[in-house]
Specification:
With 188 residues, the protein is an alpha+beta fold. The chain is 29% helix and 30% strand. The protein has five helices and eight strands. It is globular. The N terminus is likely disordered.
């Protein structure tokens, strides 16, 4: 018996086609959720769960390269990890005649090189970062940020909410990285 998902124009049955699986993935369903839907012929929810899959969490993580030119140079958008299904694309490798050379590295080759939360209510600062490093791949260490969340000059009445958001995003990104096979070394 086929169930119809009119929101996405899919026909979900006990045996989903490859196209159906791809469309469900693009709609935000995780691999496990797609497998469950296809095996049981279950009706998908009208809207896919947000942030449920590790890849969705990583792709939607906040990244602040700052409007301050001095800080923007330190944390250039090229230094952000680009998360793919089973690899991470790094766009900050080396500049050549044609621009910056990209590198694609499997998740399992990464470890979290640096992770930190900084909370200072007196100064109105709530920030966090997670820096990934692939050691010796192929000839040098490759690094990129999975999360860089910097909130500066927060008003006292908005500080608690901002702190909670920073801590929650930090934990979600670390959990998602671990689920994708990244070595966290020691957890915070």
């Amino acid at each position: 018996m086929a169930l119809s998902l009119t929101l996405y124009g899919l026909d979900v049955s006990a045996e989903c086609s490859v196209k159906d699986r791809i469309d469900l993935s693009k709609a935000g369903y995780s691999k496990d959720e797609i497998e469950t839907l296809c095996q049981k012929g279950a009706e998908p929810a009208a809207t896919p769960p947000t942030g449920s899959s590790p890849l969705t969490v990583l792709k939607s993580a906040r990244y602040d390269s700052s409007e301050d030119p001095a800080l923007g140079g330190m944390w250039h958008p090229r230094n952000r990890c680009e998360f793919l299904d089973d690899h991470v694309k790094l766009n900050n490798i080396k500049k050549n005649f044609y621009g910056y050379k990209s590198s694609v590295v499997p998740y399992r080759d990464f470890q979290v090189a640096s992770k930190q939360i900084r909370i200072d209510k007196d100064k109105g600062v709530a920030s966090s970062h997670v820096l990934l490093m692939a050691m010796g791949f192929p000839n040098a260490n490759e690094t990129c940020y999975a999360l860089l969340d910097r909130r500066i000059g927060l008003a006292a009445d908005r500080f608690d909410k901002a702190e909670s958001e920073v801590r929650q995003a930090f934990r979600k990104v670390l959990d998602a990285l671990q689920a994708m096979g990244v070595d966290l070394q020691d957890s915070q």
